[in-house]
Amino acid sequence: MTRLGQGAEPRRPAFKTVVNLLLVFVLLYLFLGGIGMLGQGVKELGKNPQYNKDAPVEGVRKYRDVVYEVFSYAENPLVGLFIGILATSIFQSSSFTTSFAVSLVVTTPLTLHQAIPIIMGANIGTSVTAVGVSFAHVRRADEFERAYGAAIVHDFYKTLTVLLLFPLEWIVWRLTGQGFLERLSLALARTFSGGAAAGEEPTNVLRVVVNPLVQGAERLLGDGLGLGHVPVNIVLTVLGLVLLFAALIYLTVILRNLVLLRVERVFDQVLFRNAAAAFVVGLALTSVVQSSSVTTSLAVPLAGAGLLTISQVYPYMLGAAIGTTVTALIASFATSADTPALAEVGVALAFAHTLFNVLGSAVWYLFRRVPISMATWFARIAGHSSRWAVMYVAGFFFVLPILVIGAYWLLK
Question: At 47, is the secondary structure helix, strand, or coil?
Fold first, then answer.
């Protein structure tokens, strides 16, 4: 682990440490608010402006027609995988992609088997937030290398899991008529859900915390400045990006000062003292905030500042990946549904999401040297030339999915 300034910095007054810690919490809140604004702005841009959730009109769908049209291409499992990547990368929410897939399964000819690749793609797409966050360190090559490596190890783990489970799912489906994850998730759903279709969705703590900031910005732009629906959400999206990166840049500066004051001991000796502790921290934190994008992104500036290594971050990422599926699974049992069939499909997809990450974590923790070595190698290249990092993010999360979906549209 990098020890910044070890033995070279004189002891500082305690009040400065307290001030720095308070600034960390303020900047973390602004960072979370930036993610909230970004997600809210993009989601609202995708919604149909004629849709009213309080007084729904028959034939008026929640999202714009283009969103439904793109998801309809998921009848091809490979295209469905890239739809999951693209949708989650754009909307910054695997929850959106998962819930949308559920609604399509019960309202269109799309099957559970075809929806599972969308879930796999959503797992990859959700890592784009952490990768994007690492670019706040791009001005310092050493920091960027550490931050970028910590971010992409999550992506590489998810991609390796897809490379393992996607062919297995397809082969078993071809041989038996039902995919591997499809069979297991349906069996678990029928065992545990009982087809119940009632309940209240659990409170999303993160949304409650950042809502005042997000809603305040929306009111200021809409009521204060008189902007329309589309301009408000475009500005909200841009404002979220600016706030996210500004908070991260200053957060890194503060964290660097705290490292010099031996705050890294908290991470070394308590939170990340071993793989089990790091895994539990990732699992518990994600269960609280209900967003793996947030918890994985929080580890990136810590790695960039030298508090954490890729090896310490990796089990934390695995815990976060499973944590977000556990909360989604609980929500699927409690979320209201119109029919028992809808409830069962929702629970089955949630189980598929959980199984994907549990199986992937089990395999790629045993062979953890593979994703860690890949991330370390590519982060070293990106540290020397950031254009490779930009090309990877743009190409893998956006250009490649668009090309695959576009090719299928042309050939269909």
Answer: strand
pTM of the model: 0.76
Total residue count of the chain as it appears in this document: 412
Rounded Cα gap, residues 112 and 101, in angstroms: 9
DSSP 63: B
Report which of 294, 314, 295, 289 is spatially closest to residue 366, judged by C-alpha positions. 314
CA–CA separation, 316 and 280 (whole Å): 7
> Quick one: CA torsion of 359, 364, 367, 369, rounded to 10 degrees?
-170
**For 341-345, which contacts have Cβ atoms below 8 Å and span 24 or more sequence positions?**
341/106, 341/195, 342/102, 342/106, 342/197, 343/193, 343/195, 343/196, 343/197, 344/186, 344/189, 344/190, 344/193, 344/195, 345/102, 345/105, 345/106, 345/112, 345/189
C-alpha 237 chain-centroid distance = 17
Residue 169 vs residues 164, 173, 179, 237: alpha-carbon distances, Å: 9, 6, 5, 37
pLDDT tens digits along 330-379: 666 655 455 666 667 778 888 999 999 999 999 999 999 999 999 999 99
Q: How far is CA 346 from the centre of its chain?
A: 19
- What's the rounded Cα separation, in Å, for the pair 387 and 98? 32
**The amino acid at 37:** M
Region for 194 from its dihedrals, namely left if φ exceeds 0, alpha if ψ lies in -120 to 50, beta otherwise: left
Give the CB-side neighbour count of residue 361, counting CA atoms within 13 A.
Answer: 23
Q: What is the pLDDT of residues 265-274, one digit of tens each?
A: 556 666 777 8
